[in-house]
Specification:
- This protein is α+β, with helices and mostly antiparallel strands.
- It has a single domain, classed as Roll (Pnp Oxidase, Chain A), CATH 2.30.110.10.
- It has 3 helices and 8 strands.
- Strand 4 and strand 5 form a beta hairpin.
- It is globular.
- It comes from Isoptericola halotolerans.
- InterPro entries: Split_barrel_FMN-bd.
- This is Pyridoxamine 5'-phosphate oxidase.
Length: 159
């Protein structure tokens, strides 16, 4: 955690720190999704999941029948939060594809297993990988880093 005397990070440093956080082994994230019922009432949902940064994408592995997997498949959108309140990374992402674990290409499955703290191939029944493309990423530590907190916009790193 930064100390009270530290200066706001440059955007380049924030991107470096964000990538380090995304690429760290056994990284977990809070994954938010929402669905609506027949009368239009919204049902937000938040769950912690293992996250993997793979080929400029985010991989999640979860049961296909889970509320989160169904909601993201229905809306194609999600928001993820990493870190804690004084060193946060927020990611707005869209779902590119859903891949059953049993049918996943070897590079995707190995990429997930290499970084995550578990390998869903050991019990693949009903599990899927969600491949998410980040559209916007924000990173900040303190109020003084609120300006310039967007480090990715429209899927491209802001330099």
């Amino acid at each position: 955690m930064p100390d009270a005397t530290s200066q706001p990070r440059s955007r380049a440093q924030r991107i470096t720190d964000t990538l380090a956080m995304l690429q760290s082994p056994a990284r977990d994230a809070w994954v938010a999704s929402a669905s609506s019922d027949d009368d239009g009432a919204a049902h937000p949902y938040l769950i912690p999941l293992s996250l993997v940064w793979w080929d400029e994408r985010i991989l999640l592995a979860l049961p296909a029948a889970s509320r989160t997997a169904r909601s993201i498949a229905a809306t194609s959108t999600t928001r993820l939060a990493l870190g804690h309140t004084r060193d946060v990374v927020l990611v707005d992402a869209v779902a590119e594809q859903t891949v059953p674990v049993a049918d996943a290409p070897a590079d995707l499955a190995e990429g997930y297993a290499d970084q995550a703290d578990w390998d869903p191939r050991s019990d693949p029944e009903g599990y899927v990988y969600l491949v998410l493309r980040p559209l916007r990423i924000q990173a900040w530590r303190e109020v003084d880093e609120m300006p310039g907190r967007t480090v990715m916009r429209d899927g491209a790193w802001v330099t």
